[in-house]
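User: My instructor asked us to take a sequence, write out its structure as tokens, and then describe one feature of it. I'm not sure where to start. Here is the sequence I was given:
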Amino acid sequence: MNVIVVTGRLGKDPETRATSSGSMVCSFSLAVSDSRAKEGDKPLWLTVVAWQKLGEICQKHLIKGKLIAVTGRLQVREFEGSRGKGTAIEIVANNVEFLSSGEQRPAAQPAAPAQATTGKSTPYSPNDEDISF
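Assistant: Let's start with the prediction itself. The structure tokens for your sequence are:
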């Protein structure tokens, strides 16, 4: 089974592009710290990709510094760039939860939902914030 769940903060604003087939993909870097990390330890930087509707939601609402949780699968792909061939290990997101309000996008954009997902789930409602864990 290929499942990964991570929580971290965005290192920069998401970037969105269209593939040659017209599919929309959003990618962003995520800083993840080990629960045993000491002050001054460097985070692990992961690349997350979100496709189609989930990618649109991430592009619209996520900004640098936001705390999020990502559930997805690991993907290894080879590429050829200006420096030659390379390998990328990425998380392909199935679900992204927004865990902090932090900075907001300009007022022209609507507020972020508590959760964005590509699977079937119950839509966000204000009562979801009242649930304690």
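For the description part of your assignment, you could build on this observation: The first helix runs from residue 52 to 61. Try explaining in your own words what that tells you about the chain.
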